[in-house]
Specification:
Elements (H helix, E strand, L loop, with lengths): L7 H11 L6 E6 L5 E7 L2 H8 L8 H7 L4 E6 L3 H15 L6 E5 L4 E5 L7 E4 L7 E4 L5 H14 L7 H6 L5 H4 L13 H15 L4 H16 L3 H25 L6 E9 L2 E10 L2 E11 L7 H16 L10 E3 L7 H8 L2 E3 L4 H26 L3 H11 L7 E10 L2 E11 L2 E2 L5 E4 L8 H13 L13 E5 L2 H13 L6 E6 L3 E2 L8 E2 L2 E4 L7 E3 L4 H32 L1
Parallel strand pairs: 8-11, 11-12, 13-17, 17-18
Antiparallel strand pairs: 1-2, 1-3, 4-10, 5-6, 5-7, 8-9, 9-10, 13-14, 14-15, 14-16, 18-21, 19-20, 21-22
Helix pairs in contact: 1-2, 4-11, 4-12, 9-10, 10-13, 14-17, 15-16
Length: about 575
Amino acid sequence: MDIEKRSPQRNALLDKARNLATSPGVYLMKHTGGQILYIGKAKSLKSRVSSYFQPITHEHPRTELMLQLVETFDVIHTETENEALILECTLIKRYKPKYNVRLKDDKHYPYIKISTDEDYPKLEWTRSINSKKARYFGPFPSAYAARTALRLLTESFRLRDCSDNTFLHRSRPCILFQMDQCTAPCVNKISVEDYQKYVNQAIAVLEGKGSAFIKNLKREMKDAAADERYEDAARIRDQIESVQIVSQTQSVLDADSRLDQDVFAVERKDGLAHGVVLQVRGGKLLGVKHYQIQNNDDSVPLSEVMSELLAQHVLLMETGNEITRAKEMLMREAPEDIELLENTLGVKIRVPESDTQKQLVSVAQTNARFAVENAKREQEGHGLAALDEVQQQLGLERLPRRIECFDISNTQGEESVASRVVFIDGAPDKNLYRRYKIKTVIGSNDFASMREVFDRRFSKMDLTDGNEKPDLVVVDGGKGQLSQAKAILTELDIQGVGLVGLAKARTEKNFQSKEVNSSMERVFIPNRLNPVPLYPHTKAYKLLTHIRDEAHRFAITYHRNLRHKKSMGDC
């Protein structure tokens, strides 16, 4: 950029910067009205601040974008560069500048819980540790990883997954027993001693002692790939990774009882970034801290991001933490300002040398990668917050990770078809969509058509077809359609599946009034007289209506295609 073509404002800022002292300190780039855009530290304020306004194009696009908004800057002098680093972190936390890399502490990561005071316990998913009569395993890097591991272990060791109320009131085994996915402890098909053996095997996997179990899964994955069942092979691969997150971590920590380190990793992908810190004390994992890295710019060197993560974690995020601060920090590569960080933070920064250290960094990196992939999945779909909202508003026993919606479409009973759409973790999974051509029903009979569709869907409830049991089934319609669906599921003995009916908003017609009154979307729930209204601004509304509309679109498209083929054949 030619100096003559630069704005007078930028030239004036350069002149102001050249008059600064050469002492260390902190500078604050400001926009109109004093809004702080960026805070940085400098060994020499004059040299560092002047470099921003030189007649050059800066390497990082984010810097150029920020400079277009800068109206002025302020500086704070410090005695040493160490003091400047501490002050920089403090001011970043206080003012949250738009163009600084910032950390957001993710505190509510999921765990798997197993009760220790029950004869027939089940694996449960939770975000809180509040019971002394249970064991907790985790935290997992994402809800998706925790639920995948929970489902895999429950099905592999044939543990119950029904609610306590269902468990206590069953008189005969459910369909999972017939599919050999449950040992039916509800009707005493297995003794307490034998059931506890399966529970202990699942615990062994969660403790990192499931190498034989993982070995069997790897063999299944190879067999699936050899048979060209690539979707099955990919599914098993993901299951192995989910289980290995806990297994790897614990086995690594047991390898050296003297370890007392914080292990850092950062993963960046498609504009998203996530940091993970494994807190190892005395060779045991006492905590895992997850940080959403805000204002990420992929053009910024990873070493710079690692420096920010380390400084903010040690200086700001550990205040009041019951875990004592480690003296050693382990990361894949040393940051450029390693000497400053070590002197200021009072720690020793190391890169992995032994196999144990390399594996620890690998575990941290795996956790960070899973977190970024989960964030990307939530960004593409409706996200975990929408699922939590649906669970709360509808009073569901468990988070509806897998939601299926069915819709019937026909024209006066002709070319009757149905659709099934599947949303996983709030995002549509079109590989699991299914179309059904009604075969056993003549004429317009939605109840009989739904009976056929449910029978065809749930009679194939196995992993090979991507048909694991849904957490929630949504039918298009109100109380009548819901009652029919409930009767069908009861007849088919389908247990442990949430069921609701979603009715469209109604418009009240009154030609004598100038106003048009419309009801909201309503959700009908079994054994509940009044429906639950869905407010348009909520995440639950957006997710459920998206699912319903997608099922309708998929069904009507198939129906129209069949009608078109029939009309072409009649010509």
